[in-house]
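hiii so um. not sure if this is the right channel but i have a protein structure encoded as tokens and i wanna go backwards to a sequence. like what aa goes where. can anyone help
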């Protein structure tokens, strides 16, 4: 379900002028020696501030706009990066904007207020969305052998944010593309009280699957009735008729994993979407895979791919045009694939919510840690010039345009 927040109602947008070089002397001094760690801390403070705001009342987004043939023909101007702050309340926009402008992010990325550049949304034919990995597992025994076995066990894992600063991998992949690509990572505060309550009940249900006898059965169900010449006589059976309760080791395995996940539900969360839009399915799949691997360790994510023959794709395009937060309906797709109806409906939002710590690898801008970026300038690179107006002596260590 789309967010009620219409970002274009009240918003500020900032353009990234350059990526910070972590070896640049003034930046090293300002960051106390470790530029990447200081930037990570700045992002963490901004996302925590967002998570503490009223649910669904504000949003923060990072938009990547890759143009294969920019107007000035400069290869390092192919990628434009924007930070968008939005809210239904102008005071909240002012709060987040002041926090951003007073942080290291403003200076190190050269942030400046800017209108959003146009994106040819009509040229996109494919999308790829990144969500949590959730799955349904059939129990080992059916209900005829254990009356407390569910139709399927629900499992979902926490994100493991990447500790590697390899966000420049996206720049390298985009540098090889000859088509338009847009990446949008957006988040808003969310209240998970209902999901936390339902998940607590789910843990209790898992624990009861292998419980052989706990006195929960109605004692009257254990009484046998006999017909005699004097009427009906009730006698309590000496051998209690207990229901079948064959143990299922899967129940305990799932319970242990879900107990660890449950601990994360106590922390502030953000509802997010992470979406890649491209002209071809191959490009959308590739870029979203690189985005996911740059952001997370352990593979605890799932990618959903859609094309222009899917209504979900058209909703994604509409959301991008109107700057709306609309996560991919992954839970509904999972339930449909397994043929289990509306099972675990209370967990519908869990695949696209996460703590600020879990999103640390996803909700960030790249850092120029491996030399000069291919598609955008680092702060230590010379100003962008049109190659047709330069006299080039020699050649670069790498091809200037890897698409050729």
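sure thing!! here u go:
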């Amino acid at each position: 379900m789309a967010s009620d927040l219409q970002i274009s109602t009240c918003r500020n947008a900032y353009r990234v002028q350059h990526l910070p070089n972590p070896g640049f002397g003034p930046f090293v001094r300002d960051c106390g020696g470790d530029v990447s760690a200081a930037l990570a801390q700045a992002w963490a403070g901004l996302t925590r501030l967002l998570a503490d705001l009223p649910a669904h009342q504000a949003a923060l987004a990072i938009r990547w706009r890759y143009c294969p043939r920019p107007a000035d023909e400069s290869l390092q101007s192919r990628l434009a990066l924007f930070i968008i702050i939005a809210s239904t309340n102008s005071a909240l926009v002012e709060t987040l904007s002041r926090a951003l402008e007073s942080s290291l992010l403003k200076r190190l990325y050269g942030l400046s207020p800017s209108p959003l550049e146009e994106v040819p949304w009509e040229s996109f034919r494919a999308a790829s969305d990144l969500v949590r990995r959730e799955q349904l597992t059939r129990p080992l025994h059916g209900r005829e052998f254990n009356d407390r076995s569910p139709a399927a066990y629900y499992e979902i894992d926490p994100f493991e944010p990447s500790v590697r600063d390899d966000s420049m991998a996206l720049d390298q992949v985009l540098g090889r593309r000859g088509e338009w690509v847009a990446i949008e990572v957006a988040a808003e505060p969310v209240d998970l009280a209902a999901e936390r309550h339902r998940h607590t009940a789910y843990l209790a249900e898992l624990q009861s699957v292998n419980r052989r006898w706990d006195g929960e059965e109605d004692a009257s169900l254990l009484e046998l009735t006999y017909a005699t010449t004097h009427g009906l006589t009730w006698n309590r059976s000496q051998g209690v008729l207990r229901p079948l309760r064959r143990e299922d080791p899967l129940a305990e395995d799932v319970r242990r994993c879900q107990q660890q996940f449950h601990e994360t539900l106590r922390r502030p969360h953000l509802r997010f979407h992470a979406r890649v839009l491209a002209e071809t399915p191959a490009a959308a799949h590739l870029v979203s895979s690189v985005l996911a691997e740059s952001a997370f360790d352990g593979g605890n994510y799932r990618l959903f791919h859609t094309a222009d023959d899917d209504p979900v794709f058209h909703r994604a395009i509409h959301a991008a045009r109107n700057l709306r937060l609309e996560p991919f309906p992954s839970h509904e797709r999972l339930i449909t694939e397994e043929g289990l109806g509306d099972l675990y409906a209370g967990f519908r939002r869990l695949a696209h919510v996460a703590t600020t710590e879990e999103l640390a690898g996803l909700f960030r801008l790249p850092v120029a840690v491996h030399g000069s970026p291919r598609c955008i300038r680092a702060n230590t690179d010379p100003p962008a010039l049109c190659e047709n107006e330069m006299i080039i002596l020699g050649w670069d260590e790498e091809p200037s345009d890897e698409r050729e």
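oh and Residues 49 and 264 are 18 Å apart (CA to CA).
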